[in-house]
Amino acid sequence: MDRSSVDAPSHRTKYHGIGGTRDHSSYFKKTKLKPHLKKQWCIPPKSSAEFVARMEDVLETYALPYDPEIPLICMDEQPIQLLDDSRPSEPIKPGQVQREDYEYVRKGSCSVFLFTEPLAGWRHVQASERRTKVDWALQIQELLDAHYPDAKRVRLVMDNLNTHTISSLYEAFPPEQALTLAKRLEIHYTPKHGSWLNMAEIELSSMTIQCLDRRIGSIEQLQREITAWEIDRNQAQKSVEWHFTTPMARGKLKHLYPEI
């Protein structure tokens, strides 16, 4: 018998196919692609005059000097899912994290409205069962009449949702009152797929991490939690320092501008 036919096989695996044989080590090469990982982004359209027009409008608004008679307010909202424990969690013990059962009970959902004046280090958060046009209008009324009754008008930066319109005021109030509120608003919409331009998103992110990383089973409990967070953050005078400007956008985001 030929000795070569009984020798031990090589430690490398051979793959036989259409392309012939392939070494195991050369076939499975390392790659920088990670298809098992992904992140969600607000991807803006390229060469969009609509996008850059609204972006520059918001950036120019942020660049205005502080004016107590015309405060700059950023507004955003976020849906919240209410969850409760299916059974009591175990008490915390030294050296152990809190243990809770993986099962939970759905208690419905609600929405959180957040308003912030970045230059003043102020914010207000309100939980609502719904996020209709009337709900938004009621939040605007509270903003103007309760929080800024002496302001000539309010520069309001927010996303361009279908509920965030002057017409919502007319669905909630008599025309005389709706017009009075509308005259005190100077609205600046962020572009579609450009919600990162809204500084209220930064506050919502902080609130979610610091306050909502737990199961909350009722809207009443949610309001207590976010009110406590609001008071603590307002007392600490936490503010947002915005450094991105229109000239920077024209350089770093040149691909968003139409070619002329």
List strands and helices in order, with pairings:
Blueprint: E1 14-17, E2 20-23, H1 24-27, H2 49-62, E3 72-85, E4 104-117, E5 122-128, H3 133-147, E6 154-158, H4 166-172, H5 175-183, E7 185-189, H6 200-211, H7 219-235, H8 246-252
Parallel strand pairs: 3-6, 6-7
Antiparallel strand pairs: 1-2, 3-4, 4-5
Helix pairs in contact: 3-4, 4-5
Number of strands: 7
Stretches where pLDDT is under 50 for at least 5 consecutive residues are: 1-21
Gross morphology: globular
Largest sheet: 5 strands, mixed
Radius of gyration in whole Å, from Cα? Answer: 27 Å
Helix segment tally? 8
Strand order of the largest sheet: 5-4-3-6-7
Distance between the termini: 80 Å
Which percent bin holds the helix content? 25-40%
Structural class of the helix and strand makeup?
Answer: alpha/beta
What portion of residues belong to β-strands?
15-25%
Protein model, in words:
With 260 residues, the protein is an alpha/beta fold. 33% of the residues lie in helices and 20% in strands. The strands form two sheets. A five-stranded mixed sheet has the order 5-4-3-6-7, sandwiched between helices. A hairpin with a 2-residue loop joins strand 1 and strand 2. Helix 3 packs across helix 4. The protein starts with 13 loop residues before the first strand and ends in an 8-residue tail after the last helix.
